[in-house]
């Protein structure tokens, strides 16, 4: 495990270590813009994979894997779609990548922010030798601390370390100590459920607003008026 300056740095280091100019890199459609920005300076050829509501189509991955350098995967609450891969899809994607000898770069900054049930185990847990895993404290503690980590197979870890040292020597020790303390004294264990509740309330408010503001018009095709639900006696009425 290598501590990084945010998981974004892990993405950047993986790009430096794995990509040569012209390397084909498989990505979800759509995918996290920041990863594309980290990969782009190494001049890969991006290949978009067919995706549905659960993410990567394993058959398309099988078809596009030969000759590709790696596949970048966001199995939990994907940015930007929010989709999550179910158990069966993870197994199929993991098996397709392993069969093709295709390394998986697994980015998981949001995995702890589930509402009802935790997501299935990461792809890395299924095939640790074939995956590089990116984790972050940004979404559960503080983005400004810039604390992330990479878990990589022994064959790749020294190369990532070399790239890390070239990049910024090390992640600030002061910030590492802060995170170490909140892990040790149990603060993070108590804090994460409070953030889950906060995000869940925001999700519910968003769904209610979408339903209220953008629901299909009535059968007669006329728009309907609904009272504003801001709860502050707002006189505004929304049309739907
Ligand atoms: C999918 C994804 N990966 C990585 C990052 C970067 O996170 P960090 O703050 O740990 O660098 C983000 C930030 O928004 C993200 O959405």
Structural topology:
Elements: E1 2-5, H1 6-18, E2 24-27, H2 33-39, E3 45-48, E4 51-52, E5 55-56, H3 58-64, E6 70-73, H4 87-100, E7 104-107, H5 123-126, E8 131-136, E9 147-151, H6 157-168, H7 173-184, H8 187-214, E10 225-227, E11 237-239
Parallel strand pairs: 2-3, 2-6, 6-7, 7-8
Antiparallel strand pairs: 1-9, 4-5, 8-9, 10-11
Helix pairs in contact: 1-2, 1-6, 3-4
Bound molecules: pyridoxal-5'-phosphate.
Pyridoxal-5'-phosphate (PLP) binds next to helix 1.
Please supply descriptive tags for the structure shown above.
8 helices, binds pyridoxal-5'-phosphate, 2 domains, two-stranded antiparallel ribbon, Aspartate Aminotransferase, domain 2, single chain, 17% strand, 240 residues
Structure description:
This protein has 2 domains: about 170 residues, Type I PLP-dependent aspartate aminotransferase-like (Major domain) (Aspartate Aminotransferase, domain 2), CATH 3.40.640; about 30 residues. About 40% of the residues lie in helices and about 15% in strands. The chain has 8 helices and 11 strands. It has a 7-stranded mixed β-sheet with strand order 1-9-8-7-6-2-3, sandwiched between helices. It has a two-stranded antiparallel ribbon with strand order 4-5. Strand 7, helix 5 and strand 8 form a beta-alpha-beta unit. Helix 1 packs across helix 6 and helix 3 runs parallel beside helix 4. It is globular, with a radius of gyration of 21 Å. About 35% of the residues are buried. Pyridoxal-5'-phosphate binds next to helix 1. Pyridoxal-5'-phosphate (PLP) binds next to helix 1.
């Amino acid at each position: 495990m290598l501590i990084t300056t945010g998981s974004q740095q892990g993405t950047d280091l993986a790009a430096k270590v794995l990509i040569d100019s012209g390397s084909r890199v498989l990505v979800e459609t759509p995918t996290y813009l920041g990863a594309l920005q980290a990969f782009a300076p190494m001049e890969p050829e991006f290949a978009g994979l067919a995706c549905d509501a659960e993410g990567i189509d394993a058959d398309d991955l099988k078809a596009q894997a030969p000759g590709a350098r790696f596949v970048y995967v966001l199995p939990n609450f994907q940015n930007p779609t929010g989709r999550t891969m179910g158990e069966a899809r993870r197994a199929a994607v993991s098996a397709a990548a392993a069969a093709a000898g295709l390394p998986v770069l697994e980015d998981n900054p949001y995995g702890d922010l589930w509402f009802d049930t935790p997501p299935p185990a990461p792809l890395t847990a299924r095939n640790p030798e074939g995956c590089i895993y990116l984790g972050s404290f940004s979404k559960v503690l503080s983005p400004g601390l810039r604390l992330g980590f990479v878990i990589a197979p022994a064959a790749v870890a020294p190369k990532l370390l070399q790239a890390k040292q070239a990049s910024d020597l090390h992640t600030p020790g002061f910030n590492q100590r802060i995170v170490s303390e909140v892990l040790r004294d149990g603060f993070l264990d108590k804090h994460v459920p409070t953030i889950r509740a906060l995000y869940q309330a925001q999700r519910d408010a968003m769904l209610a607003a979408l339903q209220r503001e953008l629901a299909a018009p009535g059968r007669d095709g006329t728009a309907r008026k609904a009272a504003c639900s801001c709860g502050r006696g707002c006189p505004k009425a929304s049309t739907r």
